[in-house]
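TL;DR need structure tokens for one chain.
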Amino acid sequence: MEIIRKQINEVPVTIIKTNKFKTIAGILKFKSPVTKENLIKRSFLKRILVYTTNKYKTNKELNVRCLEDYDASFSSSIRRDGIYVNNILVFDSLEDA
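>> reply
TL;DR here they are.
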């Protein structure tokens, strides 16, 4: 297993390379202080990032495309940790190699 840590556009990124699994997975986390406005905006952001796309007009079209694209899936969640609100985006797909 190889762990690579680097900065991409001032964002810390950790990449874990291994030959044990046949999937590609990623997690993206956004963190900010809790305010009433932040909770509303972050909840709305969660839905927009997962359920909207300009190319695929319906949820069915998007799901069919994900199945064609190595059974890709994605999800999002919003969680409050103390004085911070976290948006978490998760994606995974079968490796095409």
